[in-house]
Amino acid sequence: MTIYLYTANQIPDFSPYRSPNDPHDGLICLTETIEPQHLLAAYPHGAFPWYEDDENRVYWFTQNPRAVLLPEKLHIRQSLQKTLRRQAHKITVNHCFDDVIEQCATIKRAGQGGSWISARFQAAYRALHRMGHAHSFECWLPENGDWALAGGLYGVQIGSVFYGESMFSRQANASQMAFAHAVPFLRECGIRLIDCQQDTDHLRQFGSQLMNLRDFKDHLRQYNAQPLTRPIVREMLFQAA
Questions:
Q1: What is the per-residue pLDDT across 37-83, written as a single tens digit (0 to 9) for each?
Q2: In the chain, where are the structural domains located?
Q3: For residue 127, which phi and psi values (nearest 5 degrees)?
Q4: Looking at the domain that runs over 4-64, which CATH code has it been given?
Q5: d(Cα 226, Cα 3) in Å, to the nearest integer?
Q6: Which of 145, 167, 169, 217 is deepest in the core (most CB within 10 A)?
């Protein structure tokens, strides 16, 4: 299979189905740039940017099978339920998107030497946020008599699909607390499917499941065309002092 490199002014065709036996493990194409137009073309076809190399080529992938979460099947383990009941916390939506994506890019993770969220990636998603298609959820915890940003997550919303991208925690459980509040809120807004991309133990604890890529893309064709029942805007989602 030939992997094409698209020049700066070209938007790839992300639609071709890739079989589970793809020898490139889901790599679809490379681009010289990453812009909001690339993202809006990629996500509805199940593609996403993963990283860029030293020559500033962006690598676009799909994943088969795909890890997804149906909002109505969210599971919150008992220990996290206790934390949510006992820990003073505040959850906001779209209060500091730039800070969230920057933290996701810089926070150190076990077993990873660095982040794929380069400055160009951040710029593209920030532009998408200004267009109303990228959203952040923030978890604030008490610190020195005030609220401090302790964790959060961001993703892309097209129609009634939310494509989760990354999360971070500066304090234990902070990103999980944000996620536990975000999923019911997204369901209230009309989100029918949450794309988790990678199958991880962390997401399986929340009830994620694997879906064949062909079925996943069928769902995308249906749900990307369905508008939200409630807009995802800047707001205070929850506060427990």
A1: 999 999 999 999 998 888 889 999 998 899 999 999 999 999 999 99
A2: 4-64, 67-240
A3: -65, -40
A4: 3.30.70.3550
A5: 32
A6: 167
